[in-house]
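As noted in the main text, all predictions were made from sequence alone. Below is one such record, for Hydantoinase B/oxoprolinase family protein.
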Amino acid sequence: MTSKDKASVLDPVTFEVLKNAFATSVDLMSEQILRTCYSFVIYSRDFSSALCDAQGNTVMQGSGDIAVHVGTLHFQCKAVQEEFGDDIHPGDVFAINDPYRGGTHLNDVSFIRPIFCEGEIIGFAQNKGHWADIGGSVPGSFDVNASTHFSEGLRITPVRVWRGGVFLHDVAQLLVSNTRAPGQAMGDLQAQAEATAVCEREVLRLVEKYSKATVVAAMQETQDYVERVVLKSLAGMPQGEWETIDYLDADPALGEGMVPIRIKLTLDGNGIHYDLSGSAPAVSTFLNSGYGTTHSAIYAGTKTFFPDVPLNSGFYRAVTANIGAEGSVVNAGWPHAVTGFCSGPYEKIMNGIFELWSGIMPERAMACAFNLEYLLIGGNDGRSDSSNYFMWYDWMAGGWGGRQTKDGSSATSPVFGTGLAVQPVEGQERLNPVLTMHHEISMDSAGPGRFRGGCGVEKGGRLTQVDKTVMSYCCDRSRSVTWGVSGGLPSVPHGVWLNKGTPDEKYLGATFSNVTVRSGDTFTRPSAGGGGFGDPLERDAQAVLEDVIDGYVSVERAECDYGVVIKMNDPDIDDYEIDDERTAKAREWIRAHRHEWLQMAPEDVARQYRDGELGVLDVIRRYGVVLDWGTGELLATSTRQYRDSLRKRSSEHWA
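Prediction:
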């Protein structure tokens, strides 16, 4: 029986009041954790909360939760039930971070509290927060070279941390002692568990006011309501199949060549169906996804096109997915390393789903958004005699894709977690011996298009008094560069530079671990902008001029990417002027040659890059060539794959 066949037992007013009360109970958990957490990472909103019913199905997630936790919390709740069965009692609190039991990665630790009424479980409250370190081989627990979870940190299968309201200090101490910041971890553990008590209190308050039977019925009807709304929304949509492909940059064990993630979407009148079974085998690094996070990416990507629908298991019932057998990059299974899933398959799946739904709901169409990235620096803080261990853990905002009728959002949270806040540098500098030297909009980072992508950001810093310190970076899209659609062009590659502009300059790339750094070393990295939407030669020239004035586009790239020639009368006072005659000729010339550029011999392009005749943006946007951006070495297989993508998404739409 589907939800549309079930009769409601609640009057509409009571249902609406309780549906919103459930949302409030979850949001109160979030407010509690914000006020009591110890970790700067969790304080920057890398956490989520949920209320589940007695069967572990999600009744409501928080209004500010990050996307990556969507669709995983019910898996973890069910894992606790499977593990403990009838041995669950009032006052118990359980911990779990197991990515092979529906979790995300080891850093995301959940605390789950059963809610009892009259001796019976009526629900579960859960809070999941990202611990800055969970052990493993590198500070921050993000080891690019990990091939199994044994290098990544402490795997917490379902374990009881409170029994009947009594804190099991020995169990908690065992967990936090496997991290590099045990005091911080213990504080977060206590804060997260207490947050679940807030939700329990609110649910029992509702029971007291409306009765147990009414609250339990409302939990079920809230899920049924969401399923009904989604299925009804699909009724007027076209039926059929749509397919796309996106890539990870590489599998180190296989050498050069991007790793495909294939997505098929089917609408058949009975729901939304995905098939990712054609994706590549698991890679030899930590950029794999477990089944929980792949489902999360599917749900979060789809939910973007249904923004007004509450999020719970009713939504999950309307969406089915075949992710294939264990052992693939989207269903890695034990013991494959999966910590980097967030920069790996997760946002590739989301952006692929955006592309598919853009063809079904063109009014909400959007090109590719920038890829989530993390930079981690850990070691001894020499600013005090005690040389305390520090953990600098940073992520950046970036650009979202251009849209059907407007430019993409600039300097925005990643699609991975739209509620994720950029960490204030003042707080970072107080806690860590790392100074931020610049943090600014990155010129020319937006993918060109009739509606350009949003701009990315560049951030650079300097290490001050450090000892025995290493740096790691988790990202991607150094080769599978953030793409445009409907004729739009790509953004810029990700990657970190160490001591740029000095004799010690070194390009470290978009994924690396355990690189030794010393006091005085500097680093910088860009986040990509979003891909462009539509042919850049169709962009209004006045809009290009405004972008130049705002510092989003350089005069050089205005001509190269948009064919708009701008005279600089007095840049100091933003006195620029469009040269209409030269603009018309430049656009005509680009139209006449841009298909030829994609046929140019890749090795010739690589040579010109190495000789300084071409820059990165020309190589990517004009010639569709992928290189090792540090050495200029041609990546032939990646180039072939990249050009295929560029032709499909861009050049086939050009006049």
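The chain is about 30% helix and 20% strand. The first strand starts at residue 47 and ends at 53. These features were considered when defining construct boundaries for the mutagenesis experiments described in Section 2.9.
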